[in-house]
Write a structure and sequence with these properties.
Oligomer: single chain
Strand content: under 5%
Number of helices: 5
Number of strands: 0
Distance between the termini: 31 Å
Helix content: over 70%
Order of helices and strands: HHHHH
């Protein structure tokens, strides 16, 4: 069965998507702009927290939809990979926005820098979404066990 859980249920809210993209874009801008590590480390932590909270909230809202997909035959791996794929795309979009900011503000852009920024954005977003993806993959086919 070819079920893709990324498109299951409620989409991530526009505010959450925008905040993730802005956080990742700012991180990329600071990284390429060679900001000191004392300013970069808190920005990395902030970006990871923003992406984690956005995906944790999305997984909470999609519990019933993921349970329904599991009833129709979606495996735990499909649910897990679907959440991580969504995070990777969000990271790439944020990195592209950051590269646009670098090009506009700093007027410096090299191929190596662009590729590194795309990897930083995608890998950072995927790492932040691992825990929500694990939680989503553990949703049983019978549905959420807790009543809200």
């Amino acid at each position: 069965m070819n079920v893709h859980p990324v498109h299951a249920g409620k989409n991530m809210g526009a505010g959450a998507v925008l905040s993730c993209i802005l956080a990742i874009a700012t991180l990329i801008l600071m990284t390429i702009g060679r900001v000191s590590a004392w300013a970069l480390v808190p920005m990395i932590v902030l970006t990871e927290c923003v992406v984690y909270k956005a995906f944790a909230s999305t997984v909470r809202h999609r519990r019933r939809d993921v349970a329904l997909l599991r009833c129709f035959g979606a495996s735990r791996a499909q649910v897990f990979n679907g959440i991580l794929a969504e995070a990777a795309w969000l990271g790439v979009i944020g990195a592209v926005a950051g590269l646009g900011g670098v090009l506009f503000l700093l007027n410096i852009l090299r191929f190596e820098t662009s590729v590194a920024a795309l990897f930083i954005g995608a890998i950072g977003a995927v790492l932040a979404a691992v825990v929500p993806a694990i939680r989503a993959s553990k949703i049983p086919p019978s549905g959420p066990s807790t009543v809200a």
